[in-house]
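Today's session is about reading a structure prediction critically. Students often jump straight to the picture, but the first step is always the sequence itself: look for stretches that repeat, for charged clusters, for runs of hydrophobic residues. Only then move on to the predicted structure, which in these notes is written as discrete structure tokens rather than atom positions. Here is the chain we will use throughout the hour.
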Amino acid sequence: MKISIFYDHILQAAEQTGKEISFLLQEAKAAGIDAVEINMTYLDEHRETYDLLMDAQLAVSCVYEFYEMDSRDETARAKLHVKTARKAGADKILVVPGFFSEEEASDYSVCIQDYAQTTAFLTHNTKACRMAEGMSQLTALAKAQGIQVVIEDFDHICSHCLCKRYEMVCRTDSRSAFYFRYRKFYHSRREYFYRMGCFEREYGSRTL
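Below is the predicted structure for this chain, in token form.
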């Protein structure tokens, strides 16, 4: 099994300990870490990170990004996301497409136990439709480059994927890469603590 950590936690460890990022990356490698998951915007703005990772012999397992597909056209960022992942050698990108308002999230949580009600809500909710359209476009761009698109069941009350009782609403069909239906996920966690002061969690999921 290969293990990856969030690059953000390396940055936090550098800030907390005063140690160089390059040193902490070497420490992570020595501790058995194989790769990092890194933010697209950060990687695009800090190009020196490519060399730091290469020197530490750490791969990039996933490039993640937060979007506002619910409220604006994110085509340009989607293209940059795919381009950045390819340059980093990552075969996956993780996307948080957007958020509902608190009022919408409250309405969503009420109907989530019923498939018909959930479908009706998501079909008629403007933000959900925009996120579905944006994800469909992003997935098409990524697929053409051999990159997988994954969605995190982001633990936030306004997320389109609610973690309540480990239930996620998401489906894929021939027309769109991001529509919705019930699926239940089991979440396993493995926690790691390093001498460098970097606490990390590995999250996984499998369909029940």
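Discussion point for the tutorial: Strands lie at 4-6, 35-39, 59-66, 92-96, 148-151, 167-171, 179-193, 199-207.
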